[in-house]
Structure formats: C-alpha cells, structure tokens
Amino acid sequence: MTVIPRILFVHAHPDDETITTGGTIAALVGEGAQVTVLSATRGEAGEVIPSELRDLEGDRVGLARVREAEIAEAMAALGVREHLFLGGSAHSFEDSGMEWGADGHAVAAAAMPANALCAAELSTVARYIAAVIDEVRPHAVITYAANGGYGHPDHVRVHEATVAAVDTAAWRTGRLLFVDVPAEVAHETFDANQPGFAETGFSPAQTIPTKPPVSQIVVAQDISTVIGVKRAALAAHRTQVSVSGGFFALSNGIGMKIVDHEYYSIGAGAPISEQRLSSGPAPHVLTDLDIAACESQHPGVAGAAPLRRRREPKKPGFFAYAHAAVLALLIGFLGAMQHMNVSVFDLWGAAVILPWGLVLALLLVACGLWHLKTMYLSSTPMLVAAFVIVILSYVLGQPQWLPGSDIIVTGTLRSAAWLIGPMLIAAVLAFIKVRRPEAAR
C-alpha cells in the first residue's frame, strides 16, 4: 500500500508560511501530499499596509480576525485543507511584536502582552506543538532555523519549541527541516537592479535583513511551476504584503523578488546521502526519506528510536583564535628551524637533493591547519594560524630585527616555499567542506 506523505509546517504568524515556504507547500499539495500548516499566533502586532484598514493597527482583536480570514484565503490558494492555530480552543498565543535593531535585524519588542508567544514557557509552547505532531503524525516537520530568518523573536521561539516538541512527541518524525537562505539568494531577493523592479514602486533595500545560513543547505526545492500559486497566496495577506509583478513588499515598502527555489537544512532525522549532495542540494524536501519505514512505527511505544540531531555549529570564539595563534607560533618556529634540512645523494654521478626538512615542515602545517578546521568547523581560525606562521617566518628572516638570520634564507627555493606554503595550504583546505558528526538524542 502506498503511504501518502504527511508534512507539518510550523510558523509564527499568518503570512510567514507563504513568504518562506509557500512554494514548497503548493508543490507538495500538487503531488498529493497531506500538508498541515500550524500558526503559533494570529499576528496581532503586525503593521497594516492598506490605508483604509490602518485603524486596525493597535486593535489586536480586530486585526486577529482579519488575519484569520487572510490566512484562510491563502490556504485555499495553496490548496491546504488543514490549517491550525497553536493551542486550538484551549489556549491562544499572541504575537510578541518586534523592533529593528541597530544591525538591521529584528530584536525583541520593549513590551509584549502577558500571553505573548515569547512570554510563555518554552515547555508550554513545545507541549502544544507536540500534541499536533501526535495528531498529524507527520513524516517531516518544517520550521525556521535557529536564527529565525531575520531574528524575529517569535520565529526563534517557534524554532526552539518545535525542536523540543519533535523530541518529546510520541510520534517519531522522520525528518526535521529548517528554512535556511543562502547568502547569494538573499542578495538576489533584495537586488533592486533586476528587470521589473523599477515598475513596482517598491523601495530598494539599504541593508539585507536575512541572516546567514545556520547549517549546510541540503535541499533546494524548485517552485518555479507554482510561483503563480505562491503569488496568489501572498496577495491574500493584503494587510501585511503588497504584490507587484514578480516582487512583493512588507509594510516597510522594501521590494523582494519571489525567487524560484526555497532552501532548507536538516536539523534532525534522516540525512540526504553524500553521493546525492555531491552534485549540489537535493531537489525535494522528502529526498532519501523512507516514508514507509517512518509509517511502520508504533506511536507511543516506549523505546522508539529518537531522531538523530544535527548540532548547529557555533561561531569560533576567543578560545578558538587563541588556540590557533599558540599552535601557529609552535608550528612556525619548528618549521622555520626544520625546513632547510636536506639529504644529498649521488645518483649516477649527479647530486640529487632531497628536501625532507621542507616536506616535514609543510606536512606539520597541513596537519595543524586541518586540526583547526575540523575542530571548529570554520576556516577562519585556520586562516589566522596560517597568517601567523607566515608572519613569524618573515620576522625570523630579518637579520636587522633578530639574530640568527640563517634560519630563513630568503634567497633559496626552500625558504621561499616555506614562506608561501602555509597560505597556499590554507587556501586549499578552505574549499574543503567539513560536517559535524551527528549526535544521537
């Protein structure tokens, strides 16, 4: 028997589901999948675009009713038959609001209502999401990445609560996906020089609010065949979104292109094979997900296998750079002392020089740099170390600064190779992707 895929999308406010995942929703519905959209709030704190409806701003109850109607229209456009609000009739979570920070990203509002999403205990929010997971029994769950896209506190709270809910629900979801936007796609989205932008009347962006990807992008869902559907769903959110041609804008009037792909990273669950990823991101959110195996589980059975969680890499901190500097000083000194050593052999009357000192020195560099890259999952500490090695070697070759000028003999090929070798090795290693091992949870 063929199992119909079930996918749950968890979002913070009406319009988020369409802006970030509307094309994926429409594509899945078109394929016959059962799609459920869960909205955590009714977007009570949203700004209102149409002037004739401007009096709804600040009227949280009135705006909530209008946005309920808007998302119902958007769901109809996308073909979604099951849309839910978090808490159902038992509890209602309100929009927490936001403010724009000095860095161009969203930050928490100065004040929020008592029943705001961000005012609730994380465990409470997660419990309600887990109840929906157990009811829907999704094979895949899709929500925001840890950065909330552009930092909105409600987006971040939904991410945290969904991650917790996937862990605590009786139903074991096959895959947890996060919306994650590549930097080049973010630039394309806000590029005001694209054909057709001038005719929209929208304003060009001065800064790009989208945050860098949190994890490796492994899915690029092609939505080119359903862009018209996504556009219609965007237009349904008329208090929040203006649509013109292939572009849309929020209440700030800044134009954004409706791009033809939506991108995701995997937070937990079934990975996509390295062989498939060798040619780029997979084309579908369900790629390499065994739906039948996920369906065969017995909900509520104790000891059900938990999802394998992908740890989100953290940016290197002070310790990482201190580690890199100390390691570089050690490698730089040892390499500088070692690189001139050679052995000379007589081969059929010709002297053959074997520069084993240089080989060992560069091998030491390669091992040290690779250690830094794999330990911190970042090229930055590695590049800092390579720079320190080169600078130290340069200093050791200046007789007017330090005694012992014969350590680095800049007129020899070996010393020249030692001076540029670390940076060349770092440049090569920078293009090699490393991934943190999964950890079972």
From TrEMBL:
Residue ranges of the TM segments: 318-336, 348-369, 376-396, 416-434
Pfam families membership: PIG-L
Alphabetical UniProt keywords: Membrane, Transmembrane, Transmembrane helix, Zinc
Source species, domain of life: Bacteria
Keyword Zinc-finger in record: no
Keyword Ribosomal protein found: no
UniProt-listed InterPro entries: GlcNAc_PI_deacetylase-related, LmbE-like_dom_sf
Protein name per UniProt: N-acetyl-1-D-myo-inositol-2-amino-2-deoxy-alpha-D-glucopyranoside deacetylase
Organism: Brevibacterium picturae
